[in-house]
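Tutorial, part two.
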Amino acid sequence: MSVGITPTTAELLDQVAGYVAEGYRRIKLKIEPGRDVERVAAVREAHPDVPLSVDANAAYTIEQVDLLRALEPFDLLMIEQPLSHEDLEEHAKLQRILRTPLCLDESIRSAADAAAALELGSCRILNVKPGRVGGLLEGRRIHDLALAQDVPVWCGGMLETGIGRAANLALAALPGFSLPGDTSASHRYFAADVTEPFVLGADGTMAVPAGPGLGVEPVDERLEEITTRVERI
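Running the prediction step on this input gives:
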């Protein structure tokens, strides 16, 4: 589960407690300067055994390395995209300073980007979003590249409906995806999805659809409700 920046630490703790109770295995906190160290410390104190990571969405610069270094005592799985998506070299400098693995997200738009990042030492983990890298084939190429170099990858989401969620789950089931992804249950975003809803199991996992193609079928009534135009060719 990826948890956004809340107005207060108390609200953040309430949200995280709720998601942990639902069975989510990894919690990712969005951070930015001024809303980082104190909040991560509070969540870690409340949940000492929950795998925890942070996502900066490029909110920091290399000059703020001390803020990022201050996160190291909290045993984070990763710090995701701390610097600008264009700064592979500065990410490499930062990774040499930090013990915590860096993960690149917005920087990785293709297998070529992933290869460059790994060659430079810009990260130790990759986030693969099919919607960002151009689809399942390019996502598979990044997976294969990372697997060959023993670099862990995980599958991120971009608010997909059930159709895109099914594709993400299929990708996330590949052997190189060794870290929990961000594919949350449908109800977090949609009162009614365009497919049957995806539900988080009691053990914190989600079943990969087994049908042909993407493995899911649209719900006809739901499609009719949201259709604004039809063209017949």
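Strands lie at 2-3, 27-30, 52-55, 79-80, 102-104, 125-128, 153-155. In part three we will examine how such features are distributed along the chain.
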